Fold:
Amino acid sequence: MELLKTEGVVLKRTKVGDNDVILTIFSREKGLIQASVRGARSLKSRMSAGSALFTYAEFVLKPGRTMYSVSSAEPKESFYQLATNIERLAFATYIADLTAFCVREEGGDERLFSILLNTLYLFANSARDLRLVKCVYELKLLDCIGLAPELSGCVRCGDVSEIDYLSPAEGGLLCRSCKRAEDMVRPLDEQSLIAMRYILYSDDKRAFAFSAGEQVTKMLEDHIEAFVRTHIDRDFYSLTYLNTILGKDEKLR
Ligand SMILES: [Zn+2]
Structure:
C-alpha cells in the first residue's frame, strides 16, 4: 500500500495499552486522520518527539485496515512552551478539541491549517491577551467551515442602521425593527460589532494583531462563545475547564 506523506498537527493523543497511542492529526492535505504509534510512550522511541500533543510534524503514514499507522514523524515545531504553563495549555487544548470536532476526514483545509499553526504559536509564545487570540481563532474557524456570523447588516431586512442585537440562532445581526419578542438575542454594542467585523473581514494574519480593552474583550468572548455553542452544538469539557481557570463562573453566564 502506498505511504501517505503529510504535514499535520497532533490535536489529541489517546493512550492504548501500555506503550501505544492513537493520534488524532489535522493533516494539511487530508483533514482529520487517526493514526496509531507503536511504542510511542517508550523513552527509547524515535517517534516520541513527533507524536507529542500539539506538535507540528511531517508524517509518513501507512494505511491499515482500520486506521493509519505512523511510519515516521519529523517534528517541525513542538510548541513545547504550551506544556509549561497551565493557562496556555488550557487555551490550546480547547482549540484542539474544537478543531478536531469541526474538521472533516479526508477534507484538507489549507487556510484553517495555517490559522491553527498561527494560533498555537501565539498561545505558546505571545504576551498578548490570549482570550482575544481565542476569539479570533473561533471566528476564523466558523468562517472556514461556512458558519461565520452575518455581520454586514440585519439578517432579515439587510438594514445597516439600528443594529441592536446579535442572534446566534438566526446566524447574525438583527435590527431594532426586525427583532420579534420570541427571538433569543444578545444585546450588541457598537464596539463589539466593530471588533467582530475587524476580525472576520481582516486577512488571517492581520486579524490577530487586534487588541481591545477589558470590557470589549469580555463581551466579544461571550458573543463568540454563544455563536460557537449554537452552531457547533457540542459542550467541550476543555472549554469549561479553561473558563474555570480564567475565573469565569459558568452559572452566571
Ligand atoms: Zn432588520
